[in-house]
Amino acid sequence: MSYLIALLLVGITTALLLRAGLNWAVLLLLALVLGGVAVLGAVPWVLAVPLLLGLGAMWLPRSGWVSYRPRRPRSRPNRKPAKAKADPRVSLSGVAGLEALYEIQEKVGIGGMATVYKARSKRDGRLVALKIPQEKYVGDPRFVRRFHREAELLARLDHPNIVKVYDHGNQGDTHYIAMEFLEGEGLDRLIEGRRLGIRSLVEVMIRVAEALQHIHAQGIIHRDIKPGNIMVLRNAVREDGSVDPRGVRLMDFGIAAGKVLTRLTITGARIGTPVYMSPEQAKGQRIDHRSDIYSLGVVFYEALCGQPPFQGAYEAVIHQQITQMPPPPKQLNPEVPQVLSDLVYRMLEKDPEKRPGLEAVLDVLRGNWQEDPGLVAPVYLALAVETKKGTLRLMDPSGTLVRMWSGVGSGRGMFSSPPLSVAVDSEGGFWISLFEYGGGATRLLHRFDVEGEVTQSIGPYGMKLGELLYPISLAPLPDGLLVLDGEACTITRFDREGKPVARFGGVGQGRGTFESPRAILASSSYIFVLDYGNRQVQRLSLDGRYVSRYAFRKSRESQELRVLGGLGLTPDEQLLIYDADSQKVRQLSLEGEVLLSLPLPVAEGEDPASQVEMVVLGDVLYAIRRGSSKIHRVRMDGQSLPSLEVYAPLRGIALWHNVLLTERSARTGLSAQPSS
User: Which of 406, 475, 485, 415 is nearest to 443 (CA)?
Assistant: First the structure.
């Protein structure tokens, strides 16, 4: 019996050693020796050891009794070998047969369909870039024909910003194109590293547009404009941001085609990179030179914003290219001049007829794109949005963004959270409110001038007079500012210097007290408070005394009140209340008579229960639902107008009257009229 136990132990131990990675022959020899010792020389038992070893190796991993981790070979330092000097006698893989023509020096790049080598021509000593198709494509006659057609196309082109071709052909099964060897970096790498300023990017785009003009004049469409096909040569970008006119090259014409071609395929795949495809190219329709203009617009967009306009999987990008418009570049990068943002947006038009021609593109790029046209409209929309950059914005009534500043960050004029609301005082100052925990050093109310500079910060966090917990709404007065604290349910009045002069309100069922108040507005004579919890709007005197309330019953037979979800004032100080139950805006006289009802549409993705803010400019109502990115426009006669897209969740809206323009008009005897 002891012999059997000893052999079992030997078998189990040996199996474990085997699983740990020891050699079979070593284990077998070890098992035989140990087994012989265990049975004191009994040969029949020794012969049973291999059987026990096999059973142990099969049974143990399934039993769960023993866990193990296979031993991994010890890693060695990954020492990078010193770069060897180029040896022209060495033939690199993939270029067999070219040694008679070129001294192959090194592999410099690998693309999706070809590999590029640095080489020197034995005929004239010129340094060249050899483009060699990858082996898996050489067997496709269509690919080979297209490959040599690229060389033939480039040989016909003579432009300083287009890569030159010196020779092309084949040596046996090895096909090649010999092009000028360029030392530099692709625009994709420069964009990724954010190493080009706006001036440099503009000058690069000028050279690419000029190159495209040249190839379009030859009846050629590039079809694959992308950052990786644009090279900026070494030292082409000067210290002042200018770019050597000869320091940019448009490359890779491997899928270029004449105007008569439509959709072509290589090995069953769509031609072109989907992110940079035009909508008509993505749909496989007939294309012309305007498709290259679209692709150039995508490249310019990515260069300005640091990201392409459309992102995602292949099919998702194709869908976006065909059906969606991206945010304007200035929305993502406030430093982009509006002129350039508008140009790129026009280049991305879905309809080719609406895209500018290359001459028009060059006129803008060569022109005074850095000049700020200034604030020329009499009235603008002031917007507070939830985003990292440009949380405070000015937009003209037609939807063009003209100014943006502030944001979420640690710099001057930046804050740890986006604004809760926005209001504009009579002097043209922009007030925003924030929610931040903190002591006396933290201020929750800030005033900006139109240049984006902070001119005043008041309202520390706290419970004392002048301190605030959650300032959700602001209402400017001629001599100060009213602030609604949504948590304390109080209204604090500050004077022009930011000193608190009064506080009133509190938690209650009405008549000057509130339950879950949401918004505050002030006319020349009254204060209006959206008392959401009590389903009413309260009217107070300017010193805080209760005057009256406005509410709507759900029906004549019911005493239950409708949910009120928004507040606004017309230019003649009539009250606007959003009836959330019916999704209509009611215009009321001060006596409570309903003068007008306007339906407010609910856009796709909007929450109909979200709070509504409203302003009226001319005969047009501008309304937002908080959290939505759209500004709804409805004429006061009920006619709906196209909504304006902001491309960021909205927090508040107000009207900013151009004080400077008004003063200038007064001096010249002109009058400024609001425009709708």
Answer: 415
Task: Look up tokens 């004032």; give the residue.
Answer: 569
Q: Give pLDDT tens digits for 217-234.
A: 999 899 889 999 999 999
Report d(CA 592, CA 441) in Å as an integer.
44
DSSP string, 580-611: TTTTEEEEE-TT--EEEEEE----TT--TTS-
Q: Is residue 54 classed as helix, strand or coil in its secondary structure?
A: helix
The DSSP-derived string for 235-284 is T-B-TTS-B-TTSEEE---TT-EETT----EETTEESS-GGG--HHHHTT
**Cβ(143)–Cβ(67) below 8 Å:** no
* Helix (H/G/I), strand (E/B), else coil: 118: strand
Cα distance between residue 566 and residue 564, in whole Å: 6
pTM for this predicted structure: 0.72
CB atoms closer than 10 angstroms to residue 94: 17
Q: What are phi and psi of 608, to 5 degrees?
A: -65, -15
CB 394 within 8 A of CB 234: no
Strand-strand pairing, 379-385 and 650-657: antiparallel
Predicted confidence (pLDDT) per residue in 616-626, tens digit: 999 999 999 99
Check: CB of residue 492 under 8 Å from CB of residue 502: yes
Q: Is 397 left (phi over 0), alpha (psi -120 to 50) or beta?
A: alpha
Tokens of 56: 């142990």
**In a 3-state reduction of DSSP, which class is residue 409?**
coil
Q: What is the 3-state secondary structure (H, E, C) of 507-570?
A: ECCCCCCECCEEEEEECCCEEEEEEHHHCEEEEEECCCCEEEEECCECCCCCCCECCEEEEEEC
Alpha helices in 73-178 (DSSP H): 135-138, 141-156
* Residue 662: CB atoms within 10 Å: 16
pLDDT of residue 35: 53
The residues assigned a catalytic role are 224
**Three-state secondary structure of 208-247:** HHHHHHHHHHCCEECCCCCHHHEEEECCCECCCCCECCCC
The beta-carbon contacts of 576-580 under 8 Å, at least 24 apart in sequence, are 576/614, 576/616, 576/621, 577/537, 577/550, 578/612, 578/614, 578/623, 579/552, 580/608, 580/609, 580/612
Q: Which residue has the tokens 């107070």?
A: 540
Q: What is the mean pLDDT of residues 643-668?
A: 81
Among 42-51, 256-265, 586-595, 596-605, whose mean pLDDT is lowest? 256-265
The string over 430-455, giving b where at least 16 C-beta atoms fall within 10 Å of a residue's C-beta and e elsewhere, is: bbbbbbeeeeeeebbbbbbebebebe
Share the mean pLDDT of the chain. Answer: 84
The token duo for 377 is 């409209």
Q: What is the pLDDT of residues 307-357, one digit of tens each?
A: 999 998 888 999 999 999 999 998 888 889 989 999 999 999 999 999 999
Count CA within 13 A, CB hemisphere, residue 213. 16
Q: Which pLDDT band holds residue 172 (cuts at 50, 70, 90)?
A: confident
CA–CA dist 178, 342 (Å, integer): 40
Residue 335 phi, psi (nearest 5): -80, -10
Residue 561: which of 584, 596, 590, 532 has the closest Cα?
532
Of the candidates 606, 607, 565, the one whose C-alpha atom is nearest the C-alpha of residue 585 is 565
Contact 258, 221 (CB under 8 A): yes
- Helix axes of 289-305 and 358-366: crossing angle, nearest 10 degrees: 30
Say how many C-beta atoms besides its own lie within 10 A of residue 25's C-beta: 8
Match 């204060």 to its residue by tokens.
527
| Residue 136 exposed, middle or buried by CB count within 10 Å (0-12, 13-18, 19+) | exposed
